[in-house]
Queue: 2 jobs
Job 1
Amino acid sequence: MRDPQLSFLETLDGTGTASRVTVPDGALETGRTRLWVTAIVFALSFLIVAGRLIDLTVFTDGALSAAARSGPAPAAVASRADIVDRNGVILATSLPTASLYADPGDVPDPEQTVTRLAAVLPGLDRRRALARLRSSASFVWLHRNLTPKQQHAVNRLGLPGLQFKRSERRTYPHGRAAAHVLGLTDVDGRGIAGVERFFDRMLTGGGAPVRLSIDLRVQSLLHRELAAAVDATSAGGAAGVVLDARTGEVLAMASLPDFDPNRPAETPPASRFNRATKGVYEMGSTFKLFTTAMALDSGTVSLTDGYDARQPIRVSRFTIADFHAKKRWLSVPEILVHSSNIGAAKMALDVGAETQQDYLRRLGLMSAAHVELPEVAAPLTPSRWREVNTMTVAFGHGIAVTPLQVAAATASVVNGGVHRPATIIRQPDGVVPAGVQVLTADTSRTMRGLMRLVVTHGTGRNADVAGYRVGGKTGTAEKQVGGGYSGDALVSSFVGAFPIEAPRYVVLVVLDEPTGTEETGGRATGGWVAAPVVGRIVSRLGPLVGLAPDPAPAPGGGKARLASYAPDGGAAREWPVAFE
Amino acid sequence: MTVTGTLRHTTALFLLLAIGVALVLFSVKYQVQDLEEELTTLDAAIHRDREAIHVLEAEWSHLNDPERLHALAETHLGLEPLHPGQVGTFDGLPARPSLLDPAAAPREDGQ
């Protein structure tokens, strides 16, 4: 057996004959070790590669291939998320637009270019465009925010030297209808008002759309009816709220005068004022609802009690008199039905200032509404709550609150006594937000009956409509002009709930400085100008939200169709005055 | 076989294998490149379509604006908003006259 080392060396010259090489013993040993180390290192590397290969092909379970197959995550279409209504209808969206610019050096014939452009871009200022194209600049804007159709038309002209720059533009497909709720963005796409501002952080980034509780159909209906009322009464402004009585969701909220959010530059800043959440008004008699509710709830009075309303009350420099004076003893229901200031004031005195403030606070009338809008005003309350304040607040004077607060408080009165803050964010189906029990369910039931009486027998008769039982309360407040109250400038309102036996919706309409018309006999009070608006809204809203109307005949029988035929000969159903 | 011969064969085999693998790798690489180009094209097309859908959705919302439809229905169709009195149920329908007056009832025996 030859020495293995030698045989190894022998192979080197390929002949098999041992070369006569003289190698020192130690060097051979070193070379052998090095070879081993190298071999091991290589073997290990290949093992690692092989291991990884097996790992990738056998053990990864296709995770990588799945990742490769799905491709890159789809880029968001717009950089700002949509705002949608409760049914998913788009209320605000960012649309890609193209802006046309040119490098004048590349435009061979500026005159012809402008002439041909003007044919497809009617908004083009020809003189300015021509001057820009003849300038020595290397970049001039020709037209901003082209519609896709215009862009297509410009492309078809095939003019040299023109380029498009992509940009985005916030668009409101429904224009004025929900302008105050949605708000506005500035030119850089940052929210500066309304939902756009409150949810700015959620909207930027183009994620999931923000879903409001607004129902566009109801919003549109409220907006149209309010606008018609403002037209008819030449009112200086108006606010309207439709609230889900059970969840506190705002289905519609409108304020007039309004603005076109698609053309923000063309609107006077005053029209951006949201009267429903930022305007505070002395609401007048609608507050008697709360006064009566707290008096009944605290056990101060019962339905059979009453007050002497023959004489006006004189307190310091004020005289509290009745607008619809009956000049007799009035029961508690009569005080509400005939809207007696004297009765309400006396009732509030019996309730006491402390209890009164406590109830108002829990009804959310003493602090700003917690609604998801930046434009929220805090109510104006008396700095010192004297006896006269207790009396005037009882009928809605000396305290100024926002229409939204009144709607939310009325919802608490009719929904079983639970106060829930109003919200403009859609609540998941079947989820009722937590609330605070302010009144007992019993008081709420009684109040619903009284509110129906106001409409059937009292100041709110004009809110009565066929098919739906509306309950509510009128309000007429004189506006403070200078130091005193003016008899001419009124804030007329009506807050209604329907169907009153189990209210689903609360509708509030407030008209700021309406004037009487021929139809109202020159009267501009809540019962004459605001109540009919609520009535019209209810008669349209009911079928819209799927509430089956009562099969009672329509007023003005001749117009009634077969479907509204009543077998009992047409007697209108009367809401029972006794409650359960 | 000599050691040298074995080594020669092994070398040749590995050389062939290496060339084969290189060729396969080459073609796979180009296939992947083609696929990636196709993917980019498709992604761009998808993005364009999504953008078009986005714009069309906005237009759909605008065309369905209740106030616009209201105005259109008024001018072109002569329709009016639904009145609660126009909603009825079967219970609200009058009874069939024949049921009230047996004499007027049509004969049921087919005569």
Note: The first helix of chain A runs from residue 4 to 11.
Job 2
Amino acid sequence: MRTALLLLGFALAACAADQAVIEKGRQEEQRTCLPCHSLRIIHTNRLSRAGWNKELDKMAGWGTKYTDRDAILEYLVATYGDDKPVAPPDMSADGRAKK
Amino acid sequence: MLTAAAARNLKAADQPPAIAGKRPMILHNDRPEDLETPVKYFDTWVTPLDAFFLRQHLPRPAIDPAAYRVKLNGLVSKPMDLSVADLQKLPQHTVPATLECTGNGRAFYSPKLPGIQWGRGAVGNAEWTGPRLSDVLKLAGVDTSAKFLEIDGADSGVMQTPDFVRCMPMEKAMHPATLLALKMNGETPDIHGVPARLIVPGWDGTSWVKWVVRLTPAAKESGGFFMNPGYRYPKYALPPGTPARPAELEVIEGMPVKSTLTSPEDQSKAPLAPMVIRGFAWAGENAIERVEVSTNGGATWQNAQLSAQKLPFAWRLFTLNWTPKDPGYYTILSRATDTAGRVQPFVPAWNPSGYLWNGIDKVGVTVEKA
């Protein structure tokens, strides 16, 4: 029983650690991506870990400076991995001049 | 720590914004603007500006038409800077042509690919008006040793993002249908690249450089990210999901034959009554010869009626009158053939950037007793 509780404790701690990393990655995304473009172009993609890794390299080549590259990668894979369902993009609001 | 500007941008991302001048569009991105036309908007031969798709690689430049100049340099005898008024003085021509994003349909490839997940609406047909590019180049005395033309758009990168520069063979640059458009559908929408947008009929959208500010004839093909590795296609088809072989990638020139069904809407319902199946078909530098439609998942096909104008570069609308016999779910397909005999494939070749999707189009409709 004690062993089981301990194991549960470790599992919860690991999960919380993952969540903390993912949250850190989410903040890293806002800090590093938003200066150049909005996030929709990221969030409509569903890529493997290798795919996201390649995208991060591409953006680094174009001047993005990550402070925690591992966290943003974990966040992208956990949230927009190729095993995640595709969400249809939003529709823009009506931009025609009011008559 | 978020900067104030980043925080503002984040807040703005919560509510889908309006894009000036546009109807509600499929919003792939709002900064810069990447908008797809919902197929139900396509009901005319000329696509209205307020429904025309948008693909911006880089932030849209601020344009002052009065100060705008197109620089001609490189292999020319008279380097010059042309104003919009100078371009207006040249003979003006109007070319109807279909513009399609190179990645239209990327979302249909499997395995999935990075990039904008375009569905079926990164395409439109417009009437483009302006001087022939050949007339502009002749004005500067383009040299016969020039084999390529480098074209620079006013959009430039953020941080070290590459500048938007393209290059094309002089033969296509001098083609009479290749224009420096000052107008699109008779108007001057700077969001679509005027005062001076390159019109390269029959070629993929990436060649149609917006806000042209420099034309440089050169002896050799030049590059930059948007020529290499960007916008290349494998010479030999690859197994899906495998990496590109850089030595075997080629610049995309021209576009395949393709059709898109616009009505009925995919996964819609229709009463058990006569209906009209509609769509459009286009074929790069060729014209459309035939569109066949199937209402039974491809078991049998019928020729659709085509709109009268059989032009290279511009799409043709098609219709098929259809009366379903029974209620139930129907899979409707369209398959185009062009004047060169090219036919839309069942399975387009997967490629590492997800370009040139042209699979037979498919919609499903549930027919219900009236």
Note: Chain B has two domains: 33-251, 258-368.
